Structure prediction request, 280 residues.
Amino acid sequence: MTITDRAEGTAIYSPYANVTERQLQPPALAISTVIFALRPSVASGRPTLWLPLVRRIREPFRGLWALPGGPLTQQDSLQGAAARNLQETTGLTPRYLEQLYAFGGLHRSPSQRVVSIVYWALVQPTEAALAQESENVRWFRADKLEALAFDHNEIVDYALWRLRNKMEYGSIAYHLLGSTFTLAQVREVYEAVLDRELDPANFRRQLKATPQIEATGEYLQGGKHRPPRLYRYTGTTASGENPVPEPHRTPDSQPGPDPHPDSGALHQLSGAPAIPTNGP
Prediction:
């Protein structure tokens, strides 16, 4: 007999099942999602990466924060389950939703074998502001996380690595912006994701030389200084339905950086973290 644990993304076995019965059960399948958005830093007010987490309300790891998730049902596709779980826990319906990786270590959960298919999503600041927050659903800075349940810290680290690699493709940054933006706002996205400052003049020069960046006839109003011009991105944006192709690798191989010929401020790769082997 199993008991569905929707808040944490697993289906836990009945405490009345003995060890042999649990070992004979097939692995449980779960869907979890790392969702990134830009929100102002409390200290500086500059945009930083944040993500919503859900507080666990039962064992194991009761009281710790975890990624939003839920069990995979017979009625859902993988992406449909990820979208539904996000809607139910945070109220968000992100337009960028892409499969990140499958995590299936032998000892990911202390009570059962769990295979989690993890998605990652990007939302614009205006969308993130609509997210439902409560005592058990809260936003956290992605680079200042406390100890999470299971191996979710490692999963977030891996999602950050993927996001930083994808930034060099050009289109991924615009999922974190509105339909129009200033060049300074684009630089703030890159600085928030890469976690370091970029030279404003060089970055502006590279952006203005990009064919897909088109100036509009509008200006951002409300500032103290001369209003900056607004731009739009006219290229094709990658999405979860048609992600940028990745190099082939076996499930157990270590992922490498995405190949892309580029240089300068828009080409910032970091080393891949180790694939986590325990936690749902």
